[in-house]
Amino acid sequence: MNLIVVKDYEAMSRKAADIFSALLTLKRDCVLGLATGSTPVGMYKELQRRNRNGEISFKDVKTVNLDEYYPISPDNEQSYRHFMNENLFNHVDINLSNTHVLNGLAEDPDKECAEYDALIDSLGGIDLQVLGIGRNGHIGFNEPDEFLVPVTHKTKLTESTIEANSRFFASLDEVPRYSLTMGMGSILKARKIIILVSGKEKKEAARRMMEGVLDTRCPASFLSLHPDVTVIATEDAV
Ligand code: PGA
Fold first, then answer.
1. Which is catalytic among the residues 103, 136, 142, 165?
2. Does ligand 1 lie within 6 Å of residue 33's CB atom?
3. Using one digit for the tens of pLDDT, what is the confidence trace for 97-121?
4. What's this model's pTM, rounded to 2 decimal places?
5. Phi/psi of residue 67, each to 5°?
6. Ligand 1 lined by 42 (C-beta under 6 Å)
7. 136 counts as catalytic
């Protein structure tokens, strides 16, 4: 893994935006793998700014998102579809029909997941995948467990994730108990991966991710199998 250490959150966001901008310049019709959570918000803001300035364009870009709660309506303010619209898509020149987020209301979630992997393949695969990491080492909703499912799948949220994410909901009971998530295998098919790590509470997860040992109790450790992963970490996270 290639490690870039930066001073703070702003520097991390700019560095990540630089990598996105370089790709958007080289390949206008690239496929971006996007993530939600508080970590990439600064990067999305920076991308919005560069798009407004005319430095980059999303006109021919296609996107696929890592995960979505289940069940949840795309109109729900806590849905990841809503997050992406608010934090990026509504503010840049992207064609919304080229943006893909797993359907949190799918009647047949297994079918939805299988079709999502097929969709990614049909787009030609992901050129650049951005990731955050959970304090427990999760990636997307691939939670620490005895076994990991490699393909896109429906999964149960752990109690710690339900609790961590409850800060966005009116109450703990409103947090959906399931999610649909790309599996570690689907993620590892991306041609290039960047993972953003900010803050001292992520330090232990970052250490385990970069330890060079595969551990299903730290799904992020499987990223070490990929030939092109760049970790962009703030000073206090490493
Ligand atoms: P965060 O979440 O960016 O809000 O810290 C990251 C994650 O849980 O994947």
1. 136
2. no
3. 999 999 999 999 999 999 999 999 9
4. 0.96
5. -165, 170
6. no
7. yes
Residues across the chain: 238
Is there a catalytic annotation at residue 65?
Answer: no
Q: Is the CB of 37 under 6 A from ligand 1?
A: yes
The residue whose CA is least distant from atom 7 of ligand 1 is 134
Residues forming a β-bridge with 229: 193
State how beta strands 192-197 and 99-100 pair: unpaired
Residue 159 falls in the annotated catalytic set: no
Share of residues in the chain with pLDDT > 70 (%): 100
* Ligand 1 within 6 A of CB of 38: yes
- Contact between 208 and 218 (Cβ < 8 Å): yes
